[in-house]
Structures are given as structure tokens and as C-alpha cells.
Known about the structure:
This protein is of the alpha/beta class. Helices cover about 40% and strands about 20% of the residues.
Amino acid sequence: MIKENVKGLLTELPDGVQLVAAAKTRTSAEILEAAAAGIKIIGENYVQEAQKVFRDVGRKVLWHFIGHLQKNKVKKIVEIADMIQTVDSYDLAEEIDKRCLNAGKIMPVLIEINSGREKQKAGVLPEDAEEAVRNISKFSNIKIKGLMTMGPGSEEARPYFTKTREIFEQIKKMNLPGVEMKYLSMGMTNSYKVALEEGANIVRIGSLIFGERGDAND
Length: 218
Ligand SMILES: *Cc1c(COP(=O)(O)O)cnc(C)c1O
């Protein structure tokens, strides 16, 4: 099934759109199956889980961190991640910068926008996005590559995706030093079609690739 799902999605997605297979709760075997079918980027939400599957899968794929990142876990994820999509505070960015400096790395990051202004969700509020990008762009071991948002589920997400795209375009126009507004990461299984219409060029898809998850709370 994973194979057919991946092939179907890769055929469906327009050129220039990157597919991140959101692999929380999935096994190394499932990830390897997805990779064999053509998945190039795996998204992980939890540091411990990422470490576990990384041991088996290694650099056969690229690893994007897409979960809420705690400062005390940054050192571990810096060793694995090729991109951190969920930078939502100056303090977190500072910690990533410090750990990357020690590791001799420059980490591509996306700034997470809380486009739905949801209390339970992480991210920078839309009106604070520009300032956050300006401040975080000063770190030399971080490279801002765009924005990411979750947004509320499915079709209702459209106005939040639109809003995030507008912020993306505005910041892009400013040509801030050290900032490359290249990637707009929006859309999951129930919302990726809407997200593509609203300009996403990274979609993060879990269930549609791996099947329904056992859990119900994310
Ligand atoms: C789980 C998750 C996804 C994918 O969700 P699905 O509904 O399974 O496609 C995308 N992005 C993030 C941040 C996630 O945690």
C-alpha cells in the first residue's frame, strides 16, 4: 500500500513541490518502504523517535523536523536534521545556532506561523512574523528558508494558508540579508490540495502515505 500511495502522490503533485512523508509513530521498515517508492524527505515530530528510526534508515533520506522542539532536545536533533521546519521563537533559534556552531553546521530552518491563532498550537503570530524573521536572521549558523504553518483542518484552512502565503510574499519582497524565502510548507492529508492552490511548495503528508494512525490526538 505504501508503495502505491507514494507513487500516486508523486504523480499528482506539481513539479517543484516537495513531498515530506510525515512519519510519526511509523517504523523504520515503513520508512524504508516509502523511501524505496521514491520518498526523499521524512518528517519527524519527536526527537527520540527520530533518533530510533535514524539509526536504521540513516542518510538514505533527508530528515525534516516538523514537531514542537524543546530547547533541551536541540543538540540531539541537530545531529540528524537536514531542516528544522518549526522554529517559533528567538530562544529556540539561539539554541539551534549555538548547537550548530559546535557541530560545524548551518541549519536550514522555516519559521512556524500560528496562522489560526490557536492557543494549543505553536508558532509565531502573523503580526509578529516579520520581526521574528529579522531577529532570527542574525544567527550565522541558521539559514531561514521560508515559512511553515499547520492551520486548522481541511477546507477551513484556506484563509490561514492564504494569510501565510501573504506573509511569505511580503517578507520575500524585503530581500532581508541572510533570508531566502524559498519554501512555503503547508498542507497535510486533509488539506494539501487546498494548500497547493494557496501556493505551498512543501506538503507534509502522513496518513495518505502510511495509512491511518492509531492515535487520534494529533
Ligand atoms: C502528523 C503531521 C502531518 C501529517 O498529518 P496527516 O494528517 O497524517 O497527513 C503534517 N505536519 C505535521 C506537523 C504533523 O505533525
